[in-house]
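Subject: Predicted fold for Asparagine synthetase B, 419 residues

User T.R. writes:
Posting the sequence so we have a shared reference for the thread.
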Amino acid sequence: MKKLIILLICVLFSLPALASYILIPMDAESQKEHLKAYGITYWTLERQVKVKWLLNYRGGSFLLPDSEEIRKECQIRGVSFELISNNAAEGILELISSPSQNMEAVVLEKAPKIAVYSPKGNQPWDDAVTMVLTYAEIPYTVVYDEEVLTDQLILYDWLHLHHEDFTGQYGKFYRAYRAAPWYIRNKQEAEQLASSLGYSKVSEAKRDVALKIRDYVVGGGFMFAMCSATDSFDIALAAEGVDICETMFDGDPSEPGYQSKIDFRKTFAFTNFSLERSPMVYEFSSIDMTRRRRIIKETDYFSLMDYSAKWDPIPCMLVQNHTALVKGFMGQTTSFARDEIKSNVLIMGENKTNGEARYIHGVKGKGFFTFYGGHDPEDYQHRVGDAKTELALHPNSPGYRLILNNVLFPAAKKKKQKT
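User M.O. replies:
I've generated the structure tokens; pasting them so everyone works from the same file.
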């Protein structure tokens, strides 16, 4: 009887030591599959299970309730995880809550519904976001002009824009590719689509699409843009009601003196920029730093800003990484001129040597936007026709992690930003 009592006491005292949580570490040393770890977190949220995002704790780790189902999914996807007890989890959360620690535990409540703005057919380039969503096994829906103009964006929590031209100038590819079959075909398809939607010009259709996206953000949506979708979007907003397209793009000349008619009050992020008038120049405006860069590939890195996890959790979420230094990469819009960024926009990643911003974030109405310069974080100078990046070769990419931070951002239970 005495032995039985001792045995029961031992069992009772050992219960707290049993695994009650799964910790998915996100530091450089412990995680084999950083990108797929976001997919596990999303997959868990889809099952109405809340997750804690541990900001600045071991690279922005995730804390999940333990279950055999989650363990198996981690094993199937190759995601590193640690089983920890109630006591261990409480110890971690106590450390994080200490005023002396620049850490915070943010609750992720639901899996955001994701839309990717893209033509339904194939394009002659790749989209880094759709590639990483596919690799991380995070579902998304492709939408384009029809869905946007019929107010279907309200069905989604997060919207991605990538290599898109909202000015109606077909990506400024005219000089190099105007005789290429894919350019001719894409131009014809864009004109047919605009006509079917009731527009005489592609530029007019794209303007209204940009305005609908603006309204989506103002109403509380989350918008993430990369490459040429960043500056061409703001240019389209600023040039509302002004013809900035030359004859080869829309069939008639641009409006005389259009630069003076640009309204910078309408933009999200950029101000006081000059438009590139020549259709023979592969550039939209002075916003982009591509042609002014004076840095070689081997030393092309940008640094992430350090934010207070407790006081500024939103930008802190967006810069979570296992390194503060991220490899640079180019695109049609590679980076942003610092002096043409509005003062109320946060610069979260910058190359100080070159005086350029790479990763910026802002608030518009009730919603948020993030602009990320460059085309593909693991393809330094992606060109039309190049093979797509195989993310299985880059499972720990810091540049791609920044994209996935934005994907999970709408899932967070927001606290009021204090600064």
